[in-house]
Amino acid sequence: MKVSIICTNYNKGTWIADAIESFLSQRTSFPYEIIIVDDASTDESPKIIASYADNYPEIIRAFYHTENQGIAKTWVTICQEAKGQYIARCDGDDYWIDDCKLQKQVDLLEKTPDSKWSNTDFDFVDSSGKVTQAKAFANQAIPLITTYEDMLALKGMTMASTWLVERELMLEVNQMIDLDAVDDTFNLQLELFRKTSLSFLPDATTVYRMDAESDSRTKNVEKLRRRFQRLLATQIEYVKKYPDSDYKKAFLTLLNKHTDFEILLSQDFKPSAAAAHGQKVTIYYAGANHDFSEDQVSEFLLQEKDSLTIDLPKGTQHLRIDLSEIPSYYQTVKLVDPEFNTELLPVFTNGLQIKNAFFFNDSDPQIIYNTERVTSPSLILQYTMFNLDDHQSENYLIRLLSEDLYASRSELQKLRLSQTDYQRVTKERDTYKKELEEMVIRYNAVTHSRRWTITSKLINLLRRKK
Predict the structure, then answer these.
(1) For 94-103, what is the mean pLDDT?
(2) Under a CB-based contact definition with an 8 Å cutoff, are residues 161 and 94 in contact?
(3) Architecture of the 276-385 domain
(4) Sheet strands (E) in 70-133
């Protein structure tokens, strides 16, 4: 067995099927197994997991706790069940979006003999599965941590649901962590960095679900305070545990981060979520002899509201505006010719346009304009995003669309479960049908044999004599 996929679950019934389906979709040149452990969920999770385990008994092994053990104890215990050379981790509310994820990471590690641990880039999604940030590492939504010192200083993440780790190393490290840790992955990452280097695959293979009320993103101030206090205690513990580390490097990392916070706090504005994630408005130009390309672009930081001057290169016939790389929603988007103070109308968009509002449900939102008749040397792009960060805002349409999407996703979840049950029943029916056909064949073989025929004739003869 090459890889053991381990999925831990506690009350992730809304999403666990997404995770399991993504495991089953993996295309590899080697065998792998799926191990799912439910930590005494009180929702529909156990039923969903059992349904998949019944339908795929040759590849899925399921384990169920009768009492909640917590994530750290659950992880350490279930890893003992792994039979693969490598362990791949994925939490029950995340899922993989690259069907070749395992194959790519195994190939990477086997080409990198000094590394026993791999991670990949990933996308952030909200609770309903909507992408809020594509390629989080590449777009610097969060820093890519590569050393023990940076991990200790920044309390960063390598995205556990993307991990592929050699089994023996994972089992060794599991024995070194505090089973009552507030965040098991923080301790695991620190220990892994002490043992091996990290091999990074730049492909986004996984999504990380940002639940509105998780342990790390709770709105309860007291819970958040306790969490940070316990993480601080873990940092101090590891300073003492490994005194030979390069703490000068960790200190310089903290100084740089502290300066970044001071600069941000000194500015009298609240950056939008999109701007904080480093999203950009990208302008592409096309002419008679050249199409849109990366060779000729203009970039601007995406804000909640902005007015941008776009200088047109000579011979520009079409303008393509990419409003970030993620799904996004705009109250207004206007491209104005300042010479005549007139608005240009788009010739194409991959989103939904309602008057001046644009709704982009997919990544890479685009609007294309024809500029052949424009004589001005520049155009003005004006846009205003819907304020989705303010829970008190009156963006009612966006709220309705989000609720409708969430409801549709819940219905899809139920349909998937029904489909799995149907497949299991169909499989059982086919088995019974095959057994019945075999019984009929054996029965006919007996009743038409010479021995059976002679016996039947004697019985009939005796009946007539009576």
Answers:
(1) 96
(2) yes
(3) Sandwich (2.60)
(4) 86-91, 95-96, 115-126, 131-133
